[in-house]
Amino acid sequence: MVLSMKAQADSVALSWRIKERGGLTTVDFFGEIDENADFSDLRRHLKGSVVFHLAEVRRINSCGVREWVNFVRDLPDVTDMTFTHCSPAIVTQLNMIYNFRGPAKVRSFYAPYVCENCNNEEDKLLEVQTVFADGEIKGVPEFDCAECHRAMEFDDLPERYLSFLSEA
Ligand SMILES: [Zn+2]
Q: How confident is the model over 117-143, as pLDDT tens digits?
């Protein structure tokens, strides 16, 4: 009970910040994508090359997935789209919903790592180029624990967590 009340209190409505520089539009997203997400105003602002920075998207529910898929597939003035810093919540959707990315290329994403020595957990930013090439997973990079300096483990099955890369 206490946990679910806390989750309610922590719920953060989706917002975004648009930056334009040198012909490139970057949109930083924050919060949760749910049935209240309304992309119509953002859609009107987007044209040319766009980059979606998705590190701070915490949660996405099934209604939010529908809103998002409709959004990314209907951007008539956008010429190319890139997702960077995809949060684990975004990666989960990329793995389950084949058209979640629309026409976007994924440049980088966070992956869960855990230290089996001291239980420290961290999400590490991985570049697609470093883990995936020529149609297959090259392997996941190793990181040392910030707390105890031992090698950390990838905290999921790489072939499952990274399956979205094979669909690009
Ligand atoms: Zn450790």
A: 999 999 999 999 999 888 888 889 999
The verdict on 4 and 81 lying in the same domain is yes
Residue 139 CA, ligand 1 centroid: distance in Å: 21
State in Å: Cα 134 to ligand 1 middle.
33
Q: Are residues 123 and 97 in the same domain?
A: no
Residue 16: φ, ψ to 5°: -155, 160
Residue range 32-62, pLDDT digits in tens: 999 999 999 999 999 999 999 999 999 999 9
Question: Closest Cα to residue 30, out of 10, 6, 54, 9?
Answer: 54
The pTM (predicted TM-score) of the whole model is 0.90
Last residue of one domain, picked from the residues 106, 141, 159? 106
Instruction: Say how many Å lie between the first and final Cα of the chain, rounded.
Output: 41
Cα 143 to ligand 1 centre (Å) = 10
Ion ligand 1, residues whose Cβ is below 5 A away: 115, 117-118, 120, 145, 147-148
